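Format notes (please read before filing issues)

Several people have asked whether sequences and structure tokens are stored in separate files. They are not. Every record keeps both together, in the order shown below: the sequence lines, then the token lines. Line labels are part of the format and must not be stripped during preprocessing.
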Amino acid sequence: MTIDHGPSTVDAPWPVAVLSTKIKGWIDRLGAVWVEGEITQWGVSGGNVYGKLKDLSVDATVGFTVWSSVKTKLPANLKQGDRVIALVKPNYWVKGGTLTMQVFEMRHVGLGDLLERLERLRQQLRAEGLFDASRKRRLPFLPGRIGLITGKDSDAEKDVLRNAQLRWPSVDFRIVHTAVQGDRAAREVTAAILELDADQSVDVIIVARGGGDFQNLLVFSDEELVRAASACSTPLVSAIGHEADRPLLDEVADLRASTPTDAAKRVVPDIAEESARVQQVRSRMGMRLTSLLTREIDRLEQLRSRPALANPVSLIDSRAEELSRYVGRSSELVWRRLDRAADRIDDVRNQLRALSPQGTLARGYSIAQLPDGSIPRSRADVAPGTHLLLTLAVGAVTTTVDDPQPTGRADQ
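Then the structure lines:
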């Protein structure tokens, strides 16, 4: 039997039980409703699930309970961080004064819609060229400082640090801890990328998370985050570690690593391997230098063994006799040619003497010249009384013509 209590006044206050009963009544009248949110707590105790559901946009959280009889009907892969829709009925526990939501159904929210939106964004970014291989930058051989974006105290952080330090003990990191799932994750990861990209000491950036289901990885397909990674001037490595559903960050990153461990191996060289490689190069250089020196020594020995270098005087001796013959032959030829030239000169001299006017004069002839210096050629050229100059073989005389007498032919 329910006792009807009147209005609550200072003189007639309600008992706590009355208040609790009225609250329960009001809440019960709400009935079952569908709500959407993110699971922020998921604990199993005695076969029942006790958890919390957080609003997707504002800071509002409610607790929920899934009884074991209902739990068997829910998807087996529900866990913390999932985005879900749930059919819940508010349940106010009078004895404890607490409000919980009793869950009757729960499922992942809008996977089909999420996939469709993700694919549209993928096609848009591909059309803009953000996935082009030509945009990918090579990682530095040995980065001076590595920027690491990951969850605080996460396995991904430990894997990257441990494997990097095993490969190169002096490797230097600048670590920025962010949320890697939930509503804050995309905003924090984007801010961390911008922060590390602005740091001139950071040579490469690693974004690491140790895998997860599709919904948890949606953070790394956020458009703002992906565009920030694409615009990053520092080489960026995506180490999300999920093969089945690659987030868009993998597509725009300069290098995609399959796991955080793989990222450390791809970014940091192995000091043992590099030392061995340097030793191999030094060995090859030493062998080549030794081979080169050996060849040059052999060449020098061959040169030194040649007669010209072994006994340089022998070359002169072998040529001395030949040179003497050439000198004697040259002298003989010169004198022979001189003799022939002297004979030729004598012949020419004799010819000149035979043709010379002096030779004719020497044979008893003389040359008559008129006073004007001309030579008379006939009797008509000389008149009586003409003075003539007679040139003899030795000296000259003058004479006067008395009467020219013909000699030889009358017409001369």
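For reference, the curators noted about this record: The chain is about 45% helix and 20% strand. The chain has five domains: 16-109, 113-269, 273-305, 310-353, 359-400.
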